[in-house]
Amino acid sequence: MSTILFLEQALNSLQFGLMLFLLAAGLTLVFGIMDMINLAHGSLYMIGAYLMAELVTQTGSFWVALPLALVATALVGAALEVSLLRTLYERDHLTQVLATFAIILIANEAVRMIWGPQSIMLNAPAGLTGPVQLPGGMQYASYRLAIIGVGVLVALVLYFLVTKTRVGMLVRAGASNREMAVAMGVNIRRLFTAVFALGAALCALAGAMLGPILAVQVGMGENILILAFVVIVIGGIGSIRGAFVGSLLVGLVDTMGRALLPIAFAKMFPPQVASNLGPALSSIMIYVLMAAVLFLRPQGLFPARG
Amino acid sequence: MKKIVILAIVACAFPLAMHALDQGFYISFATRVLIYAMAAASLNLVLGYGGMVSFGHAAFFGAGAYIVGILTFEGVTSAWLTWPAAVAVAALAALVIGALSLRTRGVYFIMITLAFAQMMYYIFVSMKAYGGDDGLSLPRRSSLGFGVDLRNDFAWYYVVLFLLMIILYLLHRLVHSRFGRVIEAIRENETRAAAIGYPVYRYQLACFVISGAIAGLAGALIANQTSYVSPAILHWVQSGTLMIMVILGGVGRFWGGPAGAAVLLTLEEVFSGSKLLGPYALHWQLPVGVILLAVVLFAPRGIAGAFAKRPQ
């Protein structure tokens, strides 16, 4: 395998990992602070992508539509939290699963009613459609590079927000010990709503950025939701840093597995076996990774609770 | 006891009534309900009685279905061979997955069972010889012998009903036996159960394997019901649906699984048929979602819980 192909796959895994991080960051905070299993997190990702596609058609500009879509999805998230999810925090995990599963059904149908059953197009912004020349004679899609840039930027902003600001301190306090945070006078209800809205905005960002690469369609949230759960379990529930490391790890293992395993198997086994085994094992890799992490470190790589 | 007799009579009379009303389609629908009732009841054993939140139960359901599918595809059609094989393989899968997963607790148990189910899902996706992603069509239903033709919807319904009744009877015996009490004690307080001297891990594993075996039987039946198996039957959404049935019906209530399966499938059937909603039937998931939310908000103990006189 050539170095160029390897580098390209490395960039792809970075891009995938960073987008997973956008989803996992919100999910891990909701799970860690509010102790809430939110299956509807993937629905916010879908809603964000659809709102983005709609706003791009309305405004005609990708970069104008992006902040609007983020704000709109954050509002949807906040409305969802205030109206419904707030009543679920006190309930057990199973009830939360049932309720948020119901929200998935409702959100899917609402989207299907508004935008129709077909997947819709979301084009990459003008100027980022072609490939760029990277040092070393390698060509890479400029839009994918832009995704990596946005992902890194958001990760840095989140890191600053969580570690250096007062709000971030409250978030960390809530994640490590909720009762103590309440006892110290933190307005946890308002904090929850804010965290949820932020998580929704991050979902929308992931949906908007991935829209031009993947299809914007009903049900797009369900598949990526499970990956996001895998990420936060690997990273340690409630830990932003864990979500970051977990995302990059899952992105790397998944993308590299898909690219390298079939090649490796082709060398080791007869073609008949290799063509069956390769795809299966590369899809399984991330679950094997999760199982391995859970065995070695049952609380995840970066446990939030001390 | 009286209620159960009435229920059994209604279940036995249902196909005859539907046949008299010329609504033969509903016999097939009712068979599907019975099969999912068995699958949901098996999940309720681990989830409700054992307190083990398995988010990967579709793995056993799907394994059972695939064993029947593959054997039938290879020419083995006798139900006396394929169904026990499905049960055995599902039980074996449950033994391996359970043995590894039961070392974890809480959310981590949920995620690790999910992970194993997803692994099985991708294994079947990659089995190109047996249809891969597209699934496998069964040339025919299993043959039972004794002059019973399972292609006849009546005969098929009664065979499924008979098996469900046996399973429910065995489950009833099980959860009211000493074993069942220990399982519930472990759910309530694991440390105390261990301190009293019960081997917690072995009890939980046994419970998990029994549940997996029953799910495998339900899977063998669903493969016959639809004459088709595809990896979708192992997808996490399927595990989620089984879980929704149990939660909807009532976690840890004996009739929770069957009640939830019946209600969820009936809701789907009613809202996806064009009789009630006309062209809007396309959007049946919307009313189903709203009703599920209403159950969460207004009937927190599930359907079986709402009807029960005594709190659990």
Helix content of chain B: over 70%
Low-confidence stretches of chain B: none
Give the count of structural domains of chain A.
Answer: 1
- Kindly report the spatial arrangement of strands forming the biggest sheet of chain A: 1-2
What structural class is derived from the secondary structure elements of chain B? mainly alpha
> How many angstroms separate the termini of chain A?
44 Å
Helix fraction of chain A, binned, reads over 70%
Mean pLDDT of chain A: 84
Main beta sheet strand tally, sense and closure of chain A:
2 strands, antiparallel
Structural class of chain A: mainly alpha
> Looking at the structure, what is the overall shape of chain A?
globular
Explain this structure.
With 306 residues, chain A is mostly helical. The longest helix of chain A has 32 residues, at 3-34. In chain A, helix 2 (41-59) crosses helix 8, helix 5 (142-164) packs across helix 6 and helix 9 packs across helix 10. The radius of gyration of chain A is 20 Å and the shape is globular. In chain A, a hairpin with a 3-residue loop joins strand 1 (131-134) and strand 2 (138-141). Chain A has one domain. Chain A is built from 11 helices and 2 strands. In chain A, 75% of the residues lie in helices and 3% in strands. In chain A, strands 1-2 form a two-stranded antiparallel ribbon. By secondary structure, chain B is an all-alpha fold. The longest helix of chain B has 27 residues, at 200-226. In chain B, helix 2 packs parallel to helix 6 and helix 3 runs parallel beside helix 5. Chain B has 14 helices and 2 strands. Chain B has one domain. Chain B is globular and about 60 Å long. The two termini of chain B are 19 Å apart. Chain B has helices spanning 2-20, 25-49, 58-73, 79-101, 106-125, 153-175, 178-188, 190-196, 200-226, 236-249, 256-272, 274-277, 285-298, 302-307, and strands spanning 136-137, 228-229. At the A-B interface, helix 4, helix 9 and helix 11 of A face helix 5, helix 10 and helix 13 of B.
